Amino acid sequence: MLLIRCPYCEEERPELEFRNAGEAHIARSANMAGESDDDFEKFFFIRSNPKGIIYERWRHMHGCARFFNAVRDTVTDKFVMTYKAGEPKPAKLPGASK
Amino acid sequence: MKKYSVFAIAREAMRGHKGWEEQWSSPEPKKEYDVIIVGAGGHGLATAYYLATVHGITNVAVLEKGWLGGGNTGRNTTIIRSNYLYDESAGIYDHALKLWDGLSQELNYNVMYSARGVMMLAHNVHDIQVLKRHVHANRLNGIDNEWLSPEQAKEFCPPLNISRDARYPVVGAALQRRGGTARHDAVAWGYARGASARGVHIIQNCEVTGVKRAANGAVVGVDTTRGFIGAKKVGVVAAGHSSVIMNMAGVRMPLESYPLQALVSEPVKPVVPCVVMSNTVHAYISQSDKGELVIGAGTDQYVSYSQTGGLHILQHTLDAICEMFPIFTRMKMLRSWGGIVDVTPDRSPILAKTPVPGLYVNCGWGTGGFKATPGSGHVFAHTIAKDDPHPINAPFTIERFRTGRLIDEAAAAAVAH
């Protein structure tokens, strides 16, 4: 089971308290009805599914119930960092060489 | 290829078993092939086999980053059934089921297909409605599926607890008698042996690191850990890593990869005569011919390539198994493991041409690809050979996520995801 740090509660809690909510930083169009089929497919179905660093949303269901974002390595399942919803995608990751 | 038979066994017994030959050869990769298959699991090897036997295309290489059948082919719970809801799914899964029957004879290799029946339990009114809908839809598609009372279910599977005060009372069941199990490794080995005998190169420990395309966009080959290998056509059959390979060709996929776990118990005498699945409590169980109880758990909730998965997922499944089969509460579990499954948004596979000329993909089988192995390989070989899908896999395109023609087994699948 993963240990996940909620950036709102500022505590590391067991995965059972959380729900994964998929890839992060996928912006919903303000004009959904005007989206082309191609753009809707990209928004709704296409995912980066990386082998390595993923940016993803979590929700602290059985805690503060708030959504936040996390950076995790999908090979080791280790979390690099978590940050609050609405904050920009981190340009540089802590401890990253590149 | 020397044929296996009772006479061969007798002959070898007489001379100390010195005459058995390798089941498949391990040649050095050539500079170029007509077709490269990425991934030597059951689906990839079956594709190569049918390319050779049905379409006469034998200048084929199957590239495998690890060892043959070491991915999800060797990690699944070997369940075979075709009782899917939608016509398209019924078409492809029953195509596979028909090929399972007789596969051992065709391959001259005992894949131990055992039509022992797959029984799906209903625990509440909603389950009854869903499963009866499946029974009727299946029968309209010519697929056997029948409704059982709790007593009939108990008769079919004696260790089942049908007492009314069980935590998950059994209020009925749907039974597909043609469903069952097969020996997963033997499926990979049998297809590998058959393909190799017809000239297909099976190249293990050869990881694809790039997909090369010409100026006009068409595929010209793949970069591997053993150098560049040219090909006119490339078929990607890489299960959980399919989106990684497709990204190398510049194609982004509607896929997410999750760990899926399974476990086996210590071996015991025959006690579970069939496959029992419960969608609602999320557990399924069968018994291997070695005597181990084979138990399937669920996927983790997050994307991962770690091939492990969380312990609480296993505990949840074992809780359910022990409620349904109280006699197993003191069984010891021997091994557990995880495989990485690639899941599409509609929980149906993609077997199709891609926007890249010469590149084909067979992926998205999610949590239930093993059962489809022969059918998947058969129609995917057709798709590659003819550069056009077989009518059976024609609906399973990538484009369906743009057009909206989904095959939405996500909500309707007979199995929990």
TrEMBL record, chain A:
Q: Which GO terms describe its biological process?
A: tetrahydrofolate metabolic process
Q: Which InterPro entries match?
A: SoxD, SoxD_sf
* Signal peptide annotation: none
Highest taxon of the lineage: Bacteria
Any matching Pfam family: SoxD
Q: Name one GO molecular function term.
A: sarcosine oxidase activity
Q: What protein does this entry describe?
A: Sarcosine oxidase subunit delta
What organism is this sequence from?
Answer: Mesorhizobium erdmanii
